[in-house]
Design brief:
- The chain is of the alpha+beta class.
- It is 54% helix and 19% strand.
- The protein has 2 domains: 199 residues, no CATH class; 175 residues, no CATH class.
- The strands form 2 sheets. It has a 6-stranded mixed barrel with strand order 3-4-9-6-8-7. Strands 2-10 form a two-stranded antiparallel ribbon.
Amino acid sequence: MNYRFFLAKRIYANGNIERQAAKPAIRIAMVGMALGLAIMLASICIVIGFKDEVRSKAIGFASHIQISNFKGTQSYETFPISANDSLIGVLVGIQGVDRVQRFSTKPGIIKTDDNFQGIVLKGVGEDYNLSFFQDYLLEGEIPCFTDSVASNKVLISKMLADKLHLKLGDNVYTYYIQDNVRARRLKIVGIYETNFSEYDKIFLIGDIYTVNRLNGWKTDQVSGIEIAVDDYDRLEDICYNVSECVDTLVDRYGATYFAQTIESLNPQLFAWLDVLNMNVWVILVLMLGVAGFTMISGLLIVILERTNMIGILKALGAHNAHIREIFLYFSVFVIGKGMLWGNLIALVFCLSQKYWCWIKLDPTNYYIDSVPIHFDLLLWILINIVTLIVSFAMLIGPSYLISRISPVKSIKFE
């Protein structure tokens, strides 16, 4: 152990008690460091959690990649494409593709005795993964949908059910306008709530057989094909590979295929999520600045109160660099303790919010009912490392004040 480290440890252990001005200054610096780091860690966990929650809901309704008819990309009134088994087999074989599933949609109106609402009936078959709706199911069950028989059963969102005063087991009449008005009586067998109002307010989930008959399509025609990928970070690359396979194809009915990512389907939503990244950077810079400047003020006060000690060390032959090293060691001790408390505060806050959800949100504005938390251990460690490096670097400049202290004058100073 060198003498610089030993002296820094002694100052840290005893100086705060002996020196009345340094004691509150160091405490303020430590609190500033702890709160700054805690806010940075909590902000990262909240923003990542929020983006993951909203993104997963958008993906749950429309999957990662969607193939549709090029003519129908700007309308809920979809034009069909052929989704035969050979095409599905080609798509499944693309590297990175995890699941391929077909769906059909039909816009219409749901009417009760005293109200009505525009809806989109989304038909799915037995190949469709309904685990997303199972996770958000409030009442009832998920029926077994097929593409060969009409079940006349639907899932409806709580938002629609509340608006139309419907409950589990009710029969509802839906109307679809094409060449003429067609009606279907559907039974509500399940009520779900995702709080994703953009979709909750319009979608009913039924069987693909009913939707295809309402559209008057052939057995191999559907509104689109949804593709789930195994790595979201490679979404654009996988979509490019899918596009290479289908964008030049024309089915036997003359329809042109068109592949889009979930980000292309919801540009406003994902642009909004991207803005959150800028907010996080602003928070990180501000909190690093607050933590750094409180540490600088604390260090300067300690240096001024230790002027007599600095003069004695210089008189004994200590170099300025060695004396600066003593105070930088001391600063690392203060930063370390502040970071320890910051990590503890952030961890308690994040864990309590994750399991008890005590901070609520308005789902109509934020798509979720409470502040979400997502832990990323690598990012957590990285923020700690960057905070330590930046805070330490900010103290190097102020530590040069030591070289301006004269041994002759400082030994007299007390």
